[in-house]
Amino acid sequence: MHTPKSFDADSRGGSKVLTPAFWTRLTGRKNGRTGSTAAGRADAGAASPLATMPRGKAARARAFQDLRSVRRARLEQTTTGGSSQRIPPEVLQKVQRLEIQMKHLVNDVFSGEYHSVFKGRGMEFAEVREYMPGDDIRTIDWNVTARLNLPFVKKYVEERELTVVLAVDLSASGLFGSGSQMKRDLAVEVCSILAFAAIKNNDKVGCALFTDDVELFIPPRKGRQHVLRVIRELLYFKPAGSGTNMTAALQMLGRVLKRKSVLFVVSDFLDANFEAPLSVLARRHDVIPIVVTDAREEDIRDVGLVDLVDAETGEAVTVDTSSPAAIERFARRARRVKAWRERIFKKQAIDAIEIRTDTPYVVPLMQFFRRRARRH
Predict the structure, then answer these.
(1) How far is the CA of 184 from the CAs of 71, 174, 181, in angstroms?
(2) Which listed CATH number (3.40.109.10, 1.10.3720.10, 3.30.1140.32, 3.40.50.410) goes with 163-375?
(3) Residues 249 and 100 sit within 8 Å (Cβ to Cβ)
(4) Would you kindly state where each structural domain of the chain is located, as residue ranges?
(5) Spatial separation of the C-alpha atoms in residues 59 and 64, rounded to whole Å
(6) Contact status, residue 233 vs residue 79, Cβ threshold 8 Å
């Protein structure tokens, strides 16, 4: 079974990215079995930090604080791929700015729409109470009624908890933007607002980052700290690959997501042969593609001779943008790719959102929410 290069595992100390080498060093296990090397035996016999704890409440508190600092440093080290480099302060500041901006949008714009569109899985039993005139007799709990010799009814509440997963394409084609914003930056902002809207409704949020392979998977969890961790990875994660393999990403998500989830696939969808795994995934989950585009990918301007380079393959070509025939060929190919993509989504009855780097993303998101609300 395919395993992502980094896999986030839950622990009491917080979420950690456990690479195979880190897991071996931490536990002394290899392939699920205890290592039998001399170094492993020596480590096993060494005194643990807890065994050398000083006495006294204040001293122990300081020691635990030191341990937590060390664990945080190790977490940042493993998050950056084993490098000793810490998360740059400007990245943490950007995470904080995004949190403030997105919380404002969620509270003022998206909260009600998200709640009305993404409902829970159904109704769950909450409690029983004494029957009152006007109650539906079908809700009477006959077992409790017989025991207490008084009529009692069952009370239900909507089961709101959902699992939201953000599958984000980090291929090199996202490092393009003809204006003030690149496609990847736009994807991060949209993922941030969706993540904050989810935790406001007490939903779980997970994340999968992929290129030509699934490079990082963060299992769904609740809470503000977890969402900030997801945003930090979106901003700071350095992918090893540059291509796009949506088939591998969709198949991997189909294996690891055991319960029905709301799956946002954020990509420019400049890939082929993803129709079959998308269809399989859409049968079980609520799949919502978010197509990130740029105006110059659909309409190129007359600027003379231009060298165009494919960011994923490195293939280069020189285009004479002063030639009307060349511009028309470029536009025709862009229209054909867009029509092919929309045909796939329509065939699978999938609602897609298209966002562009040169227009505010609030408008297409609101249109999507209202469209879904009318349908449901």
Answers:
(1) 30, 5, 8
(2) 3.40.50.410
(3) no
(4) 20-80, 122-159, 163-375
(5) 9
(6) yes
CA distance 235 to 188: 7
Q: Which two tokens stand for residue 185?
A: 């930056």
Residue 175 is classified by DSSP as S
Q: What is the pLDDT along the chain (376 residues), one digit of tens a residue?
A: 455 555 544 433 444 443 443 333 334 444 444 344 333 433 434 444 444 445 666 666 666 565 555 445 444 443 444 333 466 777 677 777 777 777 767 776 665 566 556 655 555 667 889 999 888 888 899 999 999 999 999 887 655 678 999 999 999 999 999 888 899 999 999 999 899 888 888 889 999 999 999 999 999 999 989 999 999 999 889 999 999 999 999 999 999 998 889 999 999 999 988 999 999 999 999 999 999 999 999 888 888 998 888 888 888 989 898 999 988 998 999 999 999 999 999 999 999 999 999 998 888 988 888 888 776 5
DSSP 194-259: HHHHHHHTT-EEEEEEESSSEEEEEEEE-SHHHHHHHHHHHHH---S--S--HHHHHHHHHHH--S
**Identity of residue 342:** E
Nearest to 185 by CA among 98, 314, 76, 96: 98
